[in-house]
Structures are given as structure tokens and as C-alpha cells.
Amino acid sequence: MTDETRFVSAERIIAAPATEIFELIADPAQQPRWDGNDNLAEAAPGQRVRHPGDVFTMRLTTGGERENRVVEFEEGRRIAWLPTPPGEDPPGHLWRWELEPLDGGGTRVRHSYDWTALHDPKREARARSTTAENLRSSIDRLAELAERG
Questions:
Q1: Of 25, 44, 26, 43, which Cα lies nearest the Cα of 34?
Q2: Per residue in 51-74, pLDDT tens?
Q3: Closest CA relative to residue 16, chosen from 98, 99, 111, 97
């Protein structure tokens, strides 16, 4: 398998300011509202991401827990994290959101899933099942929330 097949992305323009969209992404308690993979059940309030190195915890729809280690962060523009089972090293997959404010008030939103560093065969089938359509579904749900204002 080539690295190209281990990276999927989707994008669209959302008719809302980047600051409003970013708030929905950087606050883990909001993430289950727009998760297009229907994988996220809930996150405790008060975990709003503010810096690289922050860790937020999420309960999955399967009942499991994930610690998400933030590895990229630029307020209002970019955030990326490595989901990790509690107490373990990151298995090597990364979720990234990039927001580009546009003239006129809209925002180009790019969402990507990068599993080029994933080397756990038990996780590869799940990683492979994450498609651009799943990512686009998250962006569409995010747009619905942000455009509603």
C-alpha cells in the first residue's frame, strides 16, 4: 500500500466565519454534534484546546476512551491531534482541520485523516474504512451548525 492511499481529505466552503467554525472543532464537547463517522459519544466540558501539547479525552460510541494529543495548533486556523488509547503511545494516525478565511466572510474548511505512520495491523481495516465521504460528512454537519449561527 502506498502512502497516498493512507491519506484522505475533503474540503468545502462554509458560509460562516473561521472563528465560529473553529470554536466547534476546538471544543471537544461539541465534536459529537458534527462527527461524520458517528464514532464520538461525548467529551466532558472544559477541555477547549488552546495549545499544542494539550490532551483532551473523548468517549467513543463503542464505549472506549481516547486521549487526543494535540500536535498542531494555530487559533482559528489549524488543529490536529493523535488519538491514543489511554496510557499507550499514539498508534500513528492523525486528524487535521485547516480553516482559511475567505473574502466575504466564508471559510474554506479542509479536513484530513493521515494514517501514513500507522503500523498496527489490527487498526488498518478501521483506518482504511475512513473515506473522503466520511470526512465530507463531518464538514457538512459542521457547516449546518456554523451556518445556523
A1: 25
A2: 999 999 999 999 999 999 999 999
A3: 99
Q: What is the pTM of this model?
A: 0.93
Neighbours of 145 (CB within 10 A): 16
**20, HSE (Cβ side, Cα atoms, 13 Å):** 16
The single-letter code of the amino acid at 77 is: R
State how beta strands 65-74 and 7-14 pair: unpaired
Q: Is 63 left (phi over 0), alpha (psi -120 to 50) or beta?
A: left
Cell numbers found for residue 95: 486528524
Amino acid (1-letter code) at residue 94? L
Task: Summarize pLDDT for 72-108 with one digit per residue, the tens.
Answer: 999 999 999 999 999 999 999 999 999 999 998 899 9
Q: Kindly compute the dihedral angle of the four CA atoms of residues 29, 60, 99, 78, in this order, to the nearest 10 degrees.
A: 90
Element (H, E) at 144: helix 132-148
Q: CA-CA distances (angstroms) from residue 8 to 64, 103, 131?
A: 24, 27, 6
**Antiparallel, parallel or unpaired: β 65-74 and 40-42:** unpaired
- The domains of the chain, with CATH numbers, are 3-148 (3.30.530.20)
